[in-house]
Each structure stands twice: as C-alpha cells, then as structure tokens.
Amino acid sequence: MTELNKLTIADARDALRKGDVTSAEITEACLTEIEGADALGAFVHNTPDLAREQAKAADARLQAGDAPAMCGIPLGIKDLFCTKGVPSQAASKILEGFTPEYESTVSQNLLDAGTVMLGKLNMDEFAMGSSNETSVYGNAVNPWKVDDRQLTPGGSSGGSASAVAADLCLAATGTDTGGSIRQPAAFTGITGIKPTYGRCSRWGVVAFASSLDQAGPMTKSVRDAAIMLEAMCGHDMKDSTSADIPVPNFEAMLTGDIKGKKIGIPKEYRMEGMPAEIEKLWADGADMLRDAGAEIVDISLPHTKYALPAYYVIAPAEASSNLARYDGVKYGHRAKLEAGDGIDEMYAKTRAEGFGDEVQRRVMIGTYVLSAGFYDAYYNRARRVRALIKKDFDDVFAAGVDAILTPATPSAAFGLGEMENADPVKMYLNDVFTVTVNLAGLPGISIPAGLDAQGLPLGLQLIGRPWEEGDLLNIAHEVEARAGFVAKPSKWW
Amino acid sequence: MSIDTETARKVAHLARIKVEDDRLPELAENFNAILGFIEQLNEVDVDGVEPMTSVTPMRLKRREDVVTDGNMPEKILSNAPDAREGFFAVPKVVE
C-alpha cells in the first residue's frame, strides 16, 4: 500500500483490522507529509514522539483484537482543544506557553478510542475569524491553488481543513460557533459536520461563545464523519449542557435509502447577487436528492436575514465574558510592568499585548452590548430574535421537513489578504448560510459538491432536526455519492 | 446611535484593554460599522417573545453536592506567570 496518509478512516480501519497495515506505518506516512508541508501552516505544534508512542499502543490493541473503529487512526487536533502536556494556545499570544494539565473530553474520547495525535492545528485566534488570518502562528494556507495567489482555507478551523485536504492526516477535529467547521470544509473540498448543541462536551475546549460552540469532525468522506463523530460525542458530567442521550451508531444509519424524505429549500437563502455557480450548485443538489427519491419542497425561514446581526451581538457578548479570564494571573502571557503599575495596568497591558485586533474588537463590542443602558436594547433584543430564528426552524420541522438544503458559503475560497482593508462586517458575511444553524442549535453538515469555473471546490450544506445526525449523515451520504466529488488539490507545497 | 472616541475609551477601559489615544478614532469607526449592522435587529417585532436562555430545552442536571476534585495546587499553579509559596502573585493591590 502506498501513500497511506491518503487513506480514509473507513479504509484505514478495515486495513488495520485485517492486519494489512499498522498504525505505526500510517502514522509515519502522515509525519513525513507534515514535515514537508510547512508552507501550508496547518500544523503548529507537532507531537511526533507522542504520535509514535500512541501508534504503538494502538497496534498492540489491534493485535489483541480490542479495536474500536478509530483505533490507530492518526488525527490532527485543533489548537482550541486543551491537550495534556501539549501547548494549547487557541492561536493566541495570550496563551503563549500554556501547557494544560488536563485533556479535553472530546480529545480524551478520541484517545480512549485509540486514535493517534499528530499535533495541533492552526486556527483563527480564539476561533474568531473566517479566513485563518487572525492566528498568532500566521496564516494557514489552502492546498487548493489556481494562480499565483495563496488562498484562505477558511476559518476558524483553517488548519484542520488544510491538513485534511492536503492529506497530512486522515481527519481532524474542528469547532464551529458560526460556521467554523462548515465554511473551511467547503473552501477545501472536504466534509465537516457540526452536531446538535450538546452532542459533544465543551469541557476543555477553550470557550468562545458557550451557547453556540460545538466540536465536530472534519473528514475526507461522509462515512468518516459518521465514524469519527460517534467517537467524539457522548454525555459528560463536566459540561452541564452536554446531552444525556444515547449516541447511535451513525455509520450504521448510512443506509442509502432516503426515499420519501422531505427536503426544504429555504427561499430566504437566495441572496441578492449570489454567484450563478452557487445557484447552479444548489439546484443540482436538489436534483440529486430528487433523483434519490426525496421530495423537494419550498420553505420559508422568515428571520434568516437577522441571524448575522443577532450573532454579532450574542457571540461577542459571550466572548467578552469568557475571555475575561485572560488576565495575566493564572496562565499565559503577562505584560512587563513599569514601576508604579498596579493590577489594573497589568490587566489592561496584558490584554492589549495578548489579544489580536479582531479579538479585542469583539471583546469590546461584547462589553458595550452588555453595558448598563444597552443590555436590553442589544443583548436582550438579540436573544429574542434568536428565539424567533429557532422558531422558524421548529415550524418547518413540525410541517414534516426532514432536512434543509442550502449552499455552504456565498463564494469559493478567496485570496489571503484580500479582505485586509475591508470593513469587518464584510468578513462576517462569509457565515451568512451557516450561522443560523448555531443560533438554533441544530446539526449542519457541509459536503463538497462541485468546482467553480476557476476549479475551486464549492460545498452544499444540509441542516437536520435536533439530535438526528444519523438521518442527516444518511442524506448527506446520498448527495456525496451523486455529486461524485473526487477532485484533489495538486501538490505545490 | 453613534460611538465617539470618548465612548470607545470608556468601553476599552471596561474591557480592561489598553488602547492608545491615537487608535481610538479608528476603533470608534469599527464599532460604528458593526453597530450599524446590528441596528437591523430593530426592524424585528419581538413583542411577547422571551429572550432565549437555552437552545435545547433541557433541565440542567444535578449532582450530589460533594467534593470530587482538588488537592492539586502544583498543577493549578504550574502555568502561572508568577507563583510564589503556593499562591498566584500579582502587583500590590493594597497600599
């Protein structure tokens, strides 16, 4: 077997169980690829020794016949996950030098399943961004390239997307607060699912906006997403919002039968000025589902337009509160103080030095919308609008819709630096199709479905009913099979 | 609602982020762009709508009120920029 790093999780699992290959061999193939891929800026803390040790343990487990599906699979872990003894910085200067004494529940679940950690992956600082340009480590770069320009892999899980698309690992963890799994997946031609809020424990994942954050897998196929999601989720006493409901065998739910499923096409997602290619991709997706026996229905989600503005009140408000803990006392960076500086100067200087521009901006917006006199006008109003956005979805599902089909992003990947001088709101528009899903706590998946005229990947998004990830994956699996997306970026790095 | 540099200064102080005076006008401009975008929410009729507190209708789980963790001061302090004699150390707070 050659190029073991290119395997899917499903193929690697089967080969590992048959004894055709060892985890040590797959891990070594990935480590070699990572070494030659500095230009992608995907891996930011490499853990080759740990990976080799874990691969050895996984091989022993496989030999003993005790092998969960993910046993021996080498993964990249987003820097937002706290990993014991391995730097975990959320791509921020303020967490420089922070080495957790504990392991996040999701990464622990993966370790318990026998996975191998190759290292930590680049991201936007504190997951705030849509282009991976706010990282203290520098940009992650999209392996897809059509001219001289370097393209963004999207954000905030940009390093995860880049690493999976470039076959540096078999799969990666991501997190999604407003689209941070689905948008980068779409920009790099891979699959990414954000499960229902509460499916994955948030314990040990650096918090951005606690009512919106969810972890999920970023993979090379829908089947892989099903396998890896099952290993990641489950109830956790350490996260009070973690759902105490059984985790089904998601892979077993990929039956290929979606006859009679009702798929909604929301008219509000037909944005003014939407590129013709995106419109076509969306229509093609609907045709594929119709051909597979699904019923396509027009639906309305009337408050869609207000999702982004509501998000840009709620997410910064929660962030300003969550990020208050970075004060130069307990961990990470502390500013050098001048004679006479007191504790207030220490806080203010530490946070000014430690947080990047976008993070500072959002913390301050959050502080403003929560401040006396504005709390009702901004924060409470946004939470009311959020209730209406969720009700839009509830109504549609109550009318019998099983899933909703939309484009994943309003465009293909753009060039790094191209949005540098744009108004911050322009960057926020990247999440226009994905952010509603976080506000309503629903599962959403992005599947690569085609290439644009330049040859860059485009993704479709499917949104499911709460806790019905299995059904959602099954429908996504049909889109994947019919779209037949097999394109890969050609290696330039 | 428009934010002036004085308000920007106040917000920066509340957030405990030091912003130099010469950066305040740009910051105020950024705030205004974002708040202008947020103003759209005023178009929505929210009469009688309760603010959302939990996206999934779940009751928070309760557990026994017992100590399940602790006795690890070294681990707690291991990442501190300044720790002395089992404590986090900060600049003098009391004169």
TrEMBL record, chain A:
GO terms for molecular function: ATP binding; glutaminyl-tRNA synthase (glutamine-hydrolyzing) activity; transferase activity. It comes from Aliiroseovarius halocynthiae. Belongs to the amidase family. GatA subfamily. Residues 25-473 form the Amidase domain. This is Glutamyl-tRNA(Gln) amidotransferase subunit A. InterPro entries: Amidase, Amidase_CS, Amidase_dom, AS_sf, GatA. Heterotrimer of A, B and C subunits. One of its GO terms (biological process) is translation. Keywords: ATP-binding, Ligase, Nucleotide-binding, Protein biosynthesis, Transferase. It catalyses: L-glutamyl-tRNA(Gln) + L-glutamine + ATP + H2O = L-glutaminyl-tRNA(Gln) + L-glutamate + ADP + phosphate + H(+). Its EC number is 6.3.5.7. The active site is at 78 (charge relay system), 156 (charge relay system), 180 (acyl-ester intermediate). Allows the formation of correctly charged Gln-tRNA(Gln) through the transamidation of misacylated Glu-tRNA(Gln) in organisms which lack glutaminyl-tRNA synthetase. The reaction takes place in the presence of glutamine and ATP through an activated gamma-phospho-Glu-tRNA(Gln). It comes from the Bacteria. PANTHER family: GLUTAMYL-TRNA(GLN) AMIDOTRANSFERASE SUBUNIT A, TRANSAMIDASE. GO terms for cellular component: glutamyl-tRNA(Gln) amidotransferase complex. It is an enzyme of class 6 (ligase). The gene is gatA. NCBIfam families: gatA.
TrEMBL record, chain B:
Belongs to the GatC family. Heterotrimer of A, B and C subunits. Transmembrane segments: none annotated. It catalyses: L-aspartyl-tRNA(Asn) + L-glutamine + ATP + H2O = L-asparaginyl-tRNA(Asn) + L-glutamate + ADP + phosphate + 2 H(+); L-glutamyl-tRNA(Gln) + L-glutamine + ATP + H2O = L-glutaminyl-tRNA(Gln) + L-glutamate + ADP + phosphate + H(+). GO terms for molecular function: asparaginyl-tRNA synthase (glutamine-hydrolyzing) activity; ATP binding; glutaminyl-tRNA synthase (glutamine-hydrolyzing) activity; transferase activity. Allows the formation of correctly charged Asn-tRNA(Asn) or Gln-tRNA(Gln) through the transamidation of misacylated Asp-tRNA(Asn) or Glu-tRNA(Gln) in organisms which lack either or both of asparaginyl-tRNA or glutaminyl-tRNA synthetases. The reaction takes place in the presence of glutamine and ATP through an activated phospho-Asp-tRNA(Asn) or phospho-Glu-tRNA(Gln). GO terms for biological process: glutaminyl-tRNAGln biosynthesis via transamidation; regulation of translational fidelity; translation. InterPro entries: Asp/Glu-ADT_sf_sub_c, GatC. Keywords: ATP-binding, Ligase, Nucleotide-binding, Protein biosynthesis, Transferase. The gene is gatC. Its EC number is 6.3.5.-. NCBIfam families: gatC. It comes from the Bacteria. It comes from Aliiroseovarius halocynthiae. This is Aspartyl/glutamyl-tRNA(Asn/Gln) amidotransferase subunit C.
